[in-house]
Write a sequence for this structure.
């Protein structure tokens, strides 16, 4: 299988250099102020991004990192602090697996204000299983086994290419673990997850609407000693 660094862009070394991080921290503070004042996050990022002459990658990192206080409070209230034994988790499949693939690739990840870890890898309707996919699935299986969960349900977007192949890969790999694994390939994954509790995702729209969510990716990166490599562009 071809070795791939998921989410890697050579310019990121410049975009997130120590000097650039100083500028991004100032930009994050400005965007936070604007969003707390009622401005839309994307409009705020355009305004602030133009002011600081930021690249598209830097603006995307800001949009994914910053949230207004109202959303932060609501997400914290719905966050599951401890997983109970025999529980069922509903996983935003591409969202979760791609972020872990990015982590194992050593590509940029960001610690966001809501405690989630987000990447800059765009899906754009196309996905391919890579050499880091098995590492991601192994990490998921190990942690969920230790929590002694009963069942995990992966939701995969059917319009994305190779969603069926990824579903098969998940089934094959996680079949060795003691919990039940179910794959649901469907349209409107976001809509389905917004109705549920015990959701695993970093998608802001899902977190703002679901009944409860668990920060699985952060726990995995902590256990794998990979949090030290995560950027933080706010203070």
């Amino acid at each position: 299988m071809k070795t791939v660094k998921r989410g890697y862009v050579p310019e990121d070394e410049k975009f997130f250099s120590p000097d650039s991080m100083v500028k991004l921290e100032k930009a994050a503070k400005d965007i936070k102020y604007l969003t707390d004042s009622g401005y839309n996050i994307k409009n705020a990022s355009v305004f602030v991004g133009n002011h600081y002459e930021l690249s598209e990658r830097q603006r995307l990192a800001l949009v994914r990192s910053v949230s207004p206080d109202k959303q932060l409070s609501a997400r914290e209230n719905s966050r599951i602090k401890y997983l109970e034994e025999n529980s069922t988790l509903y996983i935003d499949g591409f969202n979760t697996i791609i972020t872990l693939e990015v982590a194992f690739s050593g590509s940029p990840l960001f610690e966001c204000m809501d405690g989630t870890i987000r990447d800059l890898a765009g899906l754009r309707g196309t996905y391919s299983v890579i050499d880091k996919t098995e590492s991601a699935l192994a990490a998921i299986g190990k942690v969920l086994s230790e929590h002694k969960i009963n069942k995990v349900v992966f939701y995969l977007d059917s319009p994305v290419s190779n969603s069926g192949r990824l579903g098969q890969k998940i089934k094959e790999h996680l079949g060795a673990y003691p919990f039940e694994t179910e794959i649901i390939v469907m349209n409107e994954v976001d809509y389905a997850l917004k109705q549920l509790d015990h959701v695993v995702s970093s998608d802001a729209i899902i977190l703002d609407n679901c009944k409860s969510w668990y920060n699985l990716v952060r726990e995995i990166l902590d256990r794998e000693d990979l949090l030290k490599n995560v950027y933080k562009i706010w203070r």
In short: The two ends are 40 Å apart (CA to CA). The chain has a mean pLDDT of 96. The chain has two domains: 12-66, 82-229.
